[in-house]
Amino acid sequence: MSPAPADELCRKPLDGGWGWMVVVGAHISIGFAYSTPKALSIFYKEIQENLGASSSEIAWISSIMLAAMYAGGPVSSMLVTRFGSRPIVIAGGLMCGVSMVTASFGNSMVYLYLCIGVIGGCGLSLNLNASLTIISKYFLVKRPLANGLAMAGSPVFLCLLAPVNQYLLQIYGWRGSLLILGGLMLNCCVAGALMRPVIAPCKTSNCEPQKKLKEQPNDSHTKLKEGCMKNAKSFLDLTFFKDRGFVIYLIGSIMFIFGAYAPIVFLSAYAIRQGVEEFSAAYLLTIMGFVDMFVRPATGLIASSKWVRPRIQFFFSFAMVFTGTVHLLCPLFESYTFLVTYAVFFGVGFGMVFALIFECLMDLMGNERFPSAVGLVTIIECFPMLLGPPTAGLLVDIFGDYKYLFFMCGSVILSGGLFLFVMNIYNYHMLEKEKPGMDREKKQINVESQAHLTASEVEMKRNPEAEMERSEPEAKEANGVQREPQPENAETPD
Fold this sequence. Notes:
The chain contains 18 helices and no strands. By secondary structure, it is mainly α.
């Protein structure tokens, strides 16, 4: 599928310049958004022992946090459209910092669910959606690369936070570690400051509507209100479900999200159960993040190539199939060497998927519809995000073995990848089949428009005097000439 068209007139993406600084800011905010729920798993064993929680109960922390991050998508998108990305990311950073600081004083699981899960997840939602939206405004041709670099923030921060959290845990305990982590997350406010709004130079002809808008402040204010109401309604636009490509993408991404995070949440605990030392178990997440760090921008470069860009949906399917297969093979090996190998391949698959997951949606919907589409997608994906890790934790509680969660997650993700591959073949076949009919409809509309225009010209030629009488008052109004006052009972000409 070809890249989505650029926005019209003055809104054409810049593909560079300050956009690279925006990518840096998005790298930081997205890094915290995706790495924090994973890196918190370092604290879970101590929290579980301290508060007497089960495996499924402790998994709800990351689940609620990720679900809140995804569920807040429509609200975040609406706020970004109204206020811009910069203030929203700054507000999200403040919420994340406050959530971690308050969670450090918790004495119950419900309190941690509220502070870390709900408040922290909402803050991460503001960071994530605002960062993705502003990248789509700054880039078009280089957008896969920009998305890959921004999404690489997740593995970079995971690679750093995993050993740092383990070090803080041993010195300060889980409460002190959360307090320090809250301070670190305030750096999202710095990232938000880099997200300068797009100001593109305009041609004179393109800027005429803006000049008219300034000359009529009352009308512009009314139109602005109407536009905001229209945008607010569009963030839960159910007409997206009429788009076959969108529905296929949504089903596949739901299946991936359900099984994506449980292996990360329980990887350290699984390694410790296999007899691996705690620091070495924590380094498995670091290894995964280190590999993921390089895979995401590399995937962005590959996806930007002229051979892969038109087939990016199939590339996404391959990434999901690869990741699901890696999870299915994990329980077959128990030594630390094979766990390191698993972490490497997991990083490759996870990096490919998350470098493409939003780029594929942009490719399907285009820049204009993307904020609405991503809001709808994230609020739907919050349900599998919420249920995935606790379901995996429940399997651990029932069978007393971690291998069943890897089998479950791997089979679900593999099925989703195969579904996307087959259904995208069907979708492209149907698009080719429907293309002649769509071309005929467009041709018929053009013919009807041309016929209407020709009839109007003929009518003008037949009645030139009436046309002059009609156009003369309009010309006088445009030049600021006032009409002579008419009596109240006089008829107003049409």
